């Protein structure tokens, strides 16, 4: 007879469950196939550096202007360090408020100068100052309207989010996103795996404009040696090749869940504006301004929400 309060013994061993933290960078590169070697980003800066490292290699032979020709962003170095550097300038501008960053000439130039000095990029102080002023002051084509960054009042840079993921199949995730974005055009496929644990990410910028909420991401990809290279087709090709559409769909899902918890009258069609991906070197393209925009369908977001429905729905860390 079993004694009172005696612990029961397990009749069979419990199988070990692989639990880990994944990130978008691991998803798009297939690195989740080796969960032991994959390290999730600890902060937004590391996340940006990881993504930039996967976006393109470091520029080995940089083309420089000849004679008195002015330096442009098309000659600015490529790779993880320059990409993270440009992100840091825009993170500072958002924290100051884009309107302040545009008009506070002395403070802006001083910040750029201090950042450039740390990398021995003093020759880039004036070109970068000129570039960021243009970027902040140029109307960007977003959701059928034009929006200046300097006109954005309410925004949150580097918003962090987490999803609990319990045996979410990456093929199912990939199939949904593929079928419902960018006219189902061909793109690299995710490798078959299970997301089991947490999915973590950092959104460069979340902002509100005219009652709608947008996610924005800064892309330093080099698509050509002048602004004409940043056509809609070229940017769409880059988005597909790098699987940025998967990235911004997950960002929109995070924002969707966040707003569901925060807005009593929340409606996806009414409150979600879409994803704004700004190719930073293409700002002077008069047609596109370096902007790739898409609003994932309500159907897609609700299907993805259902895919994660067997887990605890988590909020967004803000």
Description:
With 318 residues, the chain is an alpha/beta fold. It has helices spanning 24-29, 44-55, 80-96, 98-103, 105-118, 125-137, 170-180, 232-242, 244-262, 268-271, 298-307, and strands spanning 20-23, 140-142, 145-147, 154-169, 194-209, 212-219, 272-279, 291-294. The strands form two sheets. Strands 1, 4, 5, 6, 7 and 8 form a six-stranded mixed beta sheet that branches. Strands 2-3 form a two-stranded antiparallel ribbon. Helix 2 crosses helix 3 (80-96), helix 5 crosses helix 6 and helix 7 packs antiparallel against helix 11 (298-307). The chain is globular, with a radius of gyration of 22 Å. The N and C termini lie far apart (55 Å). The model is unreliable at 31-39, 57-68 and 311-318 (pLDDT under 50).
Q: Could you give a quick summary of the protein structure above?
A:
It is built from eleven helices and eight strands. With 318 residues, the chain is an alpha/beta fold. The protein starts with 19 loop residues before the first strand and ends in an 11-residue tail after the last helix.
Task: Supply the helix-strand structural class.
Answer: alpha/beta
Sheet with most strands:
6 strands, mixed
Number of helices: 11
The percent range for strand residues is: 15-25%
* Number of extended strands: 8
Our Rg estimate from Cα atoms comes to 22 Å
Inertia-based shape: globular
Distance between the termini: 55 Å
Helix content: 25-40%
Output the helix-strand order.
EHHHHHHEEEHEEHHHEEH
Low-confidence stretches: 31-39, 57-68, 311-318
Mean pLDDT: 85
């Amino acid at each position: 007879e079993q004694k009172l309060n005696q612990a029961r013994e397990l009749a069979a061993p419990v199988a070990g469950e692989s639990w880990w933290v994944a990130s978008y960078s691991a998803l798009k590169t297939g690195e989740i196939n080796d969960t032991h070697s994959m390290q999730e980003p600890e902060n937004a800066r590391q996340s940006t550096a990881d993504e930039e490292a996967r976006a393109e290699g470091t520029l080995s032979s940089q083309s420089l202007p000849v004679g008195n020709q002015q330096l442009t962003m098309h000659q600015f170095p490529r790779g993880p360090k320059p990409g993270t550097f440009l992100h840091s300038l825009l993170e500072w501008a958002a924290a100051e408020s884009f309107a302040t960053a545009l008009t506070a000439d002395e403070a802006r130039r001083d910040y750029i100068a201090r950042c450039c000095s740390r990398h021995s990029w003093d020759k880039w102080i004036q070109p970068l100052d000129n570039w960021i002023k243009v970027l902040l002051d140029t109307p960007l084509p977003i959701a059928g309207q034009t929006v200046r960054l300097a006109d954005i009042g309410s925004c949150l840079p580097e918003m962090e989010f987490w999803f609990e993921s319990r045996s979410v199949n990456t093929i199912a995730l990939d199939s949904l996103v593929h079928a419902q974005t960018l006219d189902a055009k061909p793109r690299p496929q995710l490798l078959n795996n299970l997301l089991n644990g947490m999915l973590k990410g950092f959104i460069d910028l979340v902002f509100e404009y005219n009652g709608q909420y947008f996610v924005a991401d800064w892309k330093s990809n080099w698509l050509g040696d002048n602004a004409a290279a940043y056509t809609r087709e070229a940017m769409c090709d880059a988005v597909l090749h790098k699987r940025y559409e998967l990235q911004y769909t997950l960002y929109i899902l995070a924002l969707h869940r966040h707003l569901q918890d925060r807005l009593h009258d929340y409606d996806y069609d009414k409150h979600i504006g879409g994803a704004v991906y700004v190719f930073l070197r293409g700002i002077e393209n008069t047609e596109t301004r370096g902007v790739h925009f898409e609003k994932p369908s309500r159907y897609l977001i609700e299907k993805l929400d259902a895919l994660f429905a067997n887990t605890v729905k988590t909020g967004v860390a803000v």
